[in-house]
């Protein structure tokens, strides 16, 4: 796992995003976010080694192919909180040091399984000013029940889904729409500032545009 920084290193707005190997998509997102918000931001791209393991909160049976999901989300979040964020903040400061002179706003977000990870992190870390769960894999077995029995630690959450994502043959993945709507309802009931946005197309359409919209919502 490694981190690469993109954008304006002096920005007070920092977006942290778990990604695979698509560095070109980060540059495109930065351009779109600036068009949407007028802001130059800093993006910390966390390149994960194993997508299905590093972003999964617990083990689960395979949905695609024969490779099961792992349980590496805790290690990935620990890396972000204890390695990435201290590098972003002023020397000597730590994640969660609210009111101690830290001026940077920290937002975590991602697409698909990285969106699921980001939403899971909203219940496991209190150092983020907002979470962007973009087309998140909330069909993940046991995730809805986890949310229903956990306390959210983030004040602002963006949710989105493609309007054709739940129209699939897989009995597991087809739950994504109902689960996301229920999560949105729960967050709303807890007075979390949240929105659920529908985008045109299936899960694979315009991921960079969708991620940019999610982060733009958080920082405006």
Can you walk through the features of this model?
This protein is an alpha/beta fold. It has one domain (2-219): Alpha/Beta hydrolase fold, catalytic domain (Rossmann fold, 3-Layer(aba) Sandwich), CATH 3.40.50.1820. It is built from 7 helices and 7 strands, in the order E-E-H-E-H-H-E-H-E-H-E-H-E-H. The protein has a 7-stranded mixed beta sheet with strand order 1-3-2-4-5-6-7, sandwiched between helices. Strand 5, helix 5 and strand 6 form a beta-alpha-beta unit. It is globular and about 45 Å long.
Tally of strands:
7
Q: CATH superfamily, called what?
A: Alpha/Beta hydrolase fold, catalytic domain
Q: Output the helix-strand order.
A: EEHEHHEHEHEHEH
Give the overall silhouette. globular
Per CATH, which architecture? 3-Layer(aba) Sandwich
Walk across the major sheet and give the strand order. 1-3-2-4-5-6-7
CATH topology: Rossmann fold
- How is the biggest beta sheet arranged? 7 strands, mixed
CATH class: Alpha Beta
**SS class:** alpha/beta
| Alpha-carbon Rg, integer | 16 Å
Task: Report the total helices.
Answer: 7
Multimeric organization:
single chain
Instruction: Bin the strand percentage.
Output: 15-25%
Portion of residues in helices?
A: 25-40%
Note poorly predicted spans: 98-102
**Count of individual domains:** 1
Give the CA-CA distance, first to last residue.
30 Å
If you average the pLDDT, what whole number results?
93
């Amino acid at each position: 796992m490694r981190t690469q920084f993109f954008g304006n290193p002096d920005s007070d707005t920092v977006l942290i995003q778990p990604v695979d190997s698509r560095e070109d998509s980060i540059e495109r997102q930065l351009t779109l976010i600036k068009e949407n918000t007028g802001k130059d931001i800093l993006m910390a791209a966390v390149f994960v080694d194993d997508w299905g393991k590093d972003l999964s909160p617990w083990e689960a049976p395979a949905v695609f192919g024969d490779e099961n999901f792992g349980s590496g989300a805790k290690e990935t979040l620990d890396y972000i909180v204890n390695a990435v964020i201290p590098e972003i903040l002023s020397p000597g400061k730590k994640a969660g040091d609210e009111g101690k002179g830290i001026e940077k706003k920290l937002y975590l977000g991602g697409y698909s399984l990285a969106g699921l990870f980001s939403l899971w992190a909203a219940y496991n870390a209190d150092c983020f000013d907002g979470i962007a769960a973009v087309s998140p894999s909330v069909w993940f077995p046991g995730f809805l029940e986890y949310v229903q029995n956990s306390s959210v630690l983030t004040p602002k959450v963006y949710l989105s889904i493609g309007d054709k994502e739940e129209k699939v043959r897989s009995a597991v993945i087809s739950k994504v729409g109902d689960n996301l709507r229920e999560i949105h309802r729960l967050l709303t009931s807890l007075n979390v500032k949240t929105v659920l946005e529908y985008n045109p197309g299936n899960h694979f359409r315009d991921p960079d545009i969708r991620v940019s919209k999610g982060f733009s919502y958080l920082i405006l």
